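RECORD TYPE: inverse folding
INPUT: structure tokens
STRUCTURE:
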């Protein structure tokens, strides 16, 4: 398994990570037995980075991961997150970066995961009402106590990253990044490189669209959250499917799958970048790992930039409420 270092002074992990969110929520029915088998297979193949969060499920994804890593804790690099709040209303999303909540959330995650420490603990979204220094200060105390090893942020902008890093070293930033989501190129990637922070790219497959396996809305389960995502609304969806077609054509020319090509593009954007793909099936896990064998030339990268130019995707990447929580700097 090829590896990369997360940040200048961070840990060495597999060059690809496994996002576990969809095993518990958002992407159709749960398939627990296959999900567990998929995580086991990932670890067997050298995928050391497993990514979860307290909010996934909600609160059940960490428990699923816990069942898998029991007896294999020393083989995985475990990342989880806090900061997004849920309620009985499935549509509700709040945030909290209050110092007392940081500790409460961490203690709850440690219990659900059945571990003594968390390798990488992310603030899932920045709380606009709490200075990031206060939140990161509380996270730093968890490091001092041995409950957390490394700190991360998710969906933070350059100003917030710099302020947080000045309070305590940030090892990784996790933002959405793919051929159809190029937002991190507007200062975030540069800030990470300057500060020696690793970049973890989530949804590197464009929520499945870049794989070429989604051809119509009916391919998605009735409870799949993508049905309510702006990029999957009728007009936007048709445009985005057309946008992805040339990727599949280029992949066929190169003798790989469209998903492998999309992952290879993200990998080629910098040695400090670790993409995490989400899947609950072994067949797609093994396909995605094949992206590590896809070599892209400068001409290939130029062609992909021309096929899907920055900003070409139609529609916002989240609904209005969640978009208000992205890139804020309290």
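DESIGNED SEQUENCE:
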């Amino acid at each position: 398994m090829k590896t990369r270092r997360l940040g200048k002074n961070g840990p060495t992990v597999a060059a690809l990570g496994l996002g576990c969110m969809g095993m518990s929520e958002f992407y159709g029915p749960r398939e627990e037995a296959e999900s567990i088998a998929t995580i086991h297979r990932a670890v067997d193949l050298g995928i050391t980075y497993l990514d979860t969060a307290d909010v996934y499920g909600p609160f059940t994804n960490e428990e699923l991961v816990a069942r898998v890593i029991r007896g294999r804790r020393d083989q995985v690099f475990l990342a989880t997150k806090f900061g997004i709040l849920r309620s009985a209303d499935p549509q509700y999303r709040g945030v909290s970066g209050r110092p007392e909540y940081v500790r409460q959330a961490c203690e709850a995650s440690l219990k659900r995961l059945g571990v003594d420490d968390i390798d990488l603990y992310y603030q899932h979204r920045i709380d606009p009402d709490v200075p990031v220094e206060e939140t990161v200060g509380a996270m730093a105390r968890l490091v001092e106590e041995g409950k957390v090893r490394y700190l991360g942020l998710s969906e933070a902008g350059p100003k917030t990253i710099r302020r947080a890093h000045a309070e305590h070293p940030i090892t990784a930033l996790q933002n959405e990044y793919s051929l159809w989501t190029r937002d991190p190129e507007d200062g975030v990637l540069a800030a990470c490189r300057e500060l020696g922070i690793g970049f973890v790219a989530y949804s590197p497959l464009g929520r499945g669209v870049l794989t070429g396996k989604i051809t119509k809305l009916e391919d998605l389960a009735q409870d799949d959250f993508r049905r309510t995502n702006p990029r999957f609304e009728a007009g936007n969806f048709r445009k985005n499917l057309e946008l992805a077609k040339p990727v599949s054509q280029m992949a066929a020319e190169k003798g790989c799958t469209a998903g492998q090509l999309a992952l290879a593009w993200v990998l080629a954007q910098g040695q400090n970048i670790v993409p995490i793909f989400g899947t609950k099936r072994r067949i797609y896990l093994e396909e995605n790992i094949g992206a590590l064998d896809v070599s892209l030339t400068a001409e290939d990268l130029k062609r992909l930039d021309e096929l899907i130019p920055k900003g070409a995707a139609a529609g916002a990447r989240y609904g209005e409420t969640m978009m208000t929580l992205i890139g804020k700097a309290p």
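NOTES: The mean pLDDT is 93.
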